[in-house]
Structure to design on (484 residues):
């Protein structure tokens, strides 16, 4: 879409990776989540309803229960090297520890978001268009979030950030029907044009009415007056952000929850619908379902089949937004399928990490025993042990950080040698961003996301000096920990 606003100066969202990714102890401790893969994802639901996904993008999780390929790629600023971020398991959440380790000591950019649908519609950093200079990639650490209790990263879109695929497979063209949704943040928005995800022109320019079919989410009111101050879920059909009908729709009250499901579907010839909902609870509200705009060009549609994220069809890119997941379907999804997809999204439990918390980590098999850094030593390899809770802040005052680490005395709780086998000793080691220094609180256990194994008090031995180990999670009391 062409923006009627003066474009802002482009800026790169380059944040210090460590600071931007800072995770909170309270959130780590308070948000339990399943380590296992989903039994059915959004694209499984749509496929079962006869409207399969032709594009499926997410940096937070797999959108099919069986998907185990890469989710996204990051590029390191220090040497230009790249690595792919995969799910922890098939159908699971992103293995953020891979990113943390790979990007340690430098910054990383998201360079590609892989299509999980099998159509190969991967999104890469967008080229210049009719109304915007060439895009830049999002800072990979700028949007830490919890999904299923796991630390993952979304796509932080600021003015100048955008992704695109102009040569796609299976995506609706002409007047073919299409459905689309994305999960976005309700608090990181502006009135710039245009935080879109969906179908757009293949030449990166404004080719006229009906040449786009994308979900928009933000505070830009195109057809005044709008109800409230937004943000609103709207349909970007080119040359207008439509709240419903011919553009103006007072019934569209907007969605401002922390996480928002934004959905638009279009049968391509007569009808379109707009829905929004809280991505963390409840169902979808249908803001509009009815006739396509009567202005020439929209009925039938003239879709071209490119895919955009974070920009308008002509690369208008003065917008803010946060993207976590989204799909495009072949066909016009049923309301029942939309409702089931919303329920699946809610089950993820998207959450904003809180602030780091500091205090004792008490053992579940003895509330008088604590996790202890032997003699409060800051020496690599120092043992982490069981010891009576005695108020020794140097040895027992741990900080649970929102980047997935647990720290004390300037170092991290570490799995010796990154050996993910039963009985591997737990030690103190200088924080280095390694996957063997990542922990997630799940149902009272401290789980290493890479291995899926738990912090364990061996043999329920509460004797002072017993060194902790890594062990297969079994739900035992000796694997339960009370965090600060």
């Amino acid at each position: 879409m062409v923006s009627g606003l003066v474009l802002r100066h482009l800026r790169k969202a380059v944040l210090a990776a460590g600071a931007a990714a800072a995770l909170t102890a309270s959130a780590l401790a308070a948000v339990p989540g399943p380590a296992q893969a989903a039994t059915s994802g959004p694209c499984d639901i749509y496929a079962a309803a006869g409207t399969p996904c032709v594009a499926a993008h997410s940096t937070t999780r797999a959108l099919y229960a069986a998907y185990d390929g890469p989710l996204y790629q990051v590029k390191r600023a220090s040497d230009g090297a790249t690595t792919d971020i995969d799910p922890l398991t098939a159908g699971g959440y992103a293995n953020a520890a891979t990113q943390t380790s790979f990007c340690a000591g430098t910054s990383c950019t998201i360079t590609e978001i892989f299509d999980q649908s099998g159509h190969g519609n991967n999104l890469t950093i967008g080229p210049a268009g009719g109304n915007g200079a060439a895009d830049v990639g999002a800072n990979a650490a700028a949007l830490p979030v919890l999904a299923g209790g796991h630390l993952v990263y979304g796509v932080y879109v600021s003015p100048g950030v955008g992704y695109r695929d102009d040569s796609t497979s299976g995506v609706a063209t002409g007047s073919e029907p299409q459905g689309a949704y994305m999960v976005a943040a309700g608090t990181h928005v502006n009135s710039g044009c245009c935080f879109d995800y969906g179908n757009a022109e293949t030449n990166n320019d404004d080719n006229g009415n009906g040449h786009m079919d994308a979900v928009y989410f933000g505070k830009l009111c195109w057809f005044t007056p709008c109800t409230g101050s937004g943000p609103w879920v709207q349909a970007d059909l080119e040359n207008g952000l439509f709240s419903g009908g011919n553009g103006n729709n007072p019934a569209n009250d907007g969605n401002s929850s922390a996480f928002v499901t934004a959905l638009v579907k279009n049968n391509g010839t007569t009808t379109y619908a707009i829905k929004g909902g809280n991505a963390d609870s409840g169902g979808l509200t249908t803001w509009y379902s009815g006739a396509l705009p009567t202005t020439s060009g929209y009925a039938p549609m003239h879709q071209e089949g490119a895919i955009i994220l974070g920009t308008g069809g002509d690369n208008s890119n003065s917008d803010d937004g946060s993207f976590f997941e989204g799909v495009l379907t072949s066909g016009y999804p049923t309301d029942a399928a939309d409702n089931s997809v919303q329920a699946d999204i809610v089950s993820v439990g998207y959450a904003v990490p809180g602030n780091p918390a500091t205090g004792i980590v008490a053992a579940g098999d003895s509330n008088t025993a604590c996790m202890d850094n032997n003699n409060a030593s800051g020496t690599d390899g120092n043992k982490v042990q069981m010891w009576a809770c005695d108020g020794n802040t140097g040895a027992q005052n741990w900080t649970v950080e929102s980047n997935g680490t647990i720290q004390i005395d300037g170092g991290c709780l570490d799995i010796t040698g990154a050996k993910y086998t039963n009985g591997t000793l737990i030690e103190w080691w200088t924080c280095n961003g390694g996957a063997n220094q990542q922990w997630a609180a799940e149902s009272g256990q401290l789980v290493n996301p890479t291995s899926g194994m738990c912090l364990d008090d061996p043999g329920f031995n509460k004797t002072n000096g017993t060194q902790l180990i890594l062990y297969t999670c079994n739900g035992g009391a000796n694997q339960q920990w009370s965090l600060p």
